[in-house]
Amino acid sequence: MKRKIAGLYDPYLDILGGGERLILSIMKVLCENGFALEIFWDSDMRQQIKNSLNISFASEVKFTRNIFKHRSSPIEKARILSRYDKFFYVTDGSYFYSTAKKTYIYCMVPEQSLYRQSLINRMKTWNNIYIAISKYTQGWIKKWGIDSKLIYPYIENDFMQYDQSFTKKPIILSVGRFFRHLHAKRHDVAIQWFSELQEKHSEFKKYKLIIAGRVLSVDRDYFNELKNLASGNNSILFYPNCSYERLLSLYRDTSYYWHMTGIDADTQKHPEKAEHLGITPLEAMAAGGIVCGYSAGGIPELVTHGQNGYLFTTKDELMRTMINCEKNIKKQNIIRSSAHDFIKSNFSYEVFTKRVAEVILTK
């Protein structure tokens, strides 16, 4: 029997962020179901994917010449794509007619310019299936005329090894790529608010704010600006480009997790500036961290205020939450256990593979 082949094109692959993690996880499930995988990228990124995302593939993976980056004729593209049983791509706003047997377009960022439904684009994609990362993204692209299937990511079992016997350390963690555009993680706000929290409330003097995330060369200046902003506070630590193992250790130690994406943004005019889902808050919840998330974008899909975490819209709300929670150990334990159980029930690999099968493998 001829082996089935899946293909992937993601112009943002080298970012290795949450979106890349989800699309590569889908590829992982396909490999486990006997597909060979070919990725359109000019260098072999298997090791970077393993180191940053802890994703490896059960079967053959080939990194092949990127026909979408280099000039290729429509005839050549059509010939190459016709080999694939299932082809996936992440759009940068451009679309093309795919000759693959089934084509899936992955939607992470709810930015309208990426989903222009001109007559030509509708003709190119008339038989394609769109996949959204969250209900938030799904809702926005629906407004722009696109129906989609929802596939949430999964959280590694490594993060779920939590029970109440664990001793949490006085750490507030914030994780996310260091960049200032689109859905910026607003590490600058975390730095300022943490310093104020320590200054006004002595019970937080013992705490550290740890900010971890990927730093690309183009974002180095912004990263240095953040370090300068935090330079007067020795309780603020940076972990750029840390390994999967180090990140896992940070999550296990962390008492609180802050997520600031969307602050000061008009997310009705610019929905792309809110968090599209929030994989790092999910990881923190799995590890028993108490998530305090800015109430915008995909975060309210994950956090039920006062049950498995906390939502806030202002600095004062976050401050009150931190003060009240720090005083109430019993409530802390309830939140930690509820968050962990929520992730285990809804974001396990078993739940994920079942959903991938429903949307992709049975079609």
TrEMBL record:
Listed InterPro entries: ALG2, Glyco_trans_1
Top-rank taxon, per record: Bacteria
One GO CC term on file: endomembrane system
Cross-referenced Pfam families: Glycos_transf_1
Domain spans labelled Glycosyl transferase family: 164-337
Source species: Candidatus Roizmanbacteria bacterium RIFCSPLOWO2_01_FULL_38_12
Keywords from the named record: Transferase
Protein known as: Glycosyl transferase family 1 domain-containing protein
MF GO annotations: GDP-Man:Man(1)GlcNAc(2)-PP-Dol alpha-1,3-mannosyltransferase activity
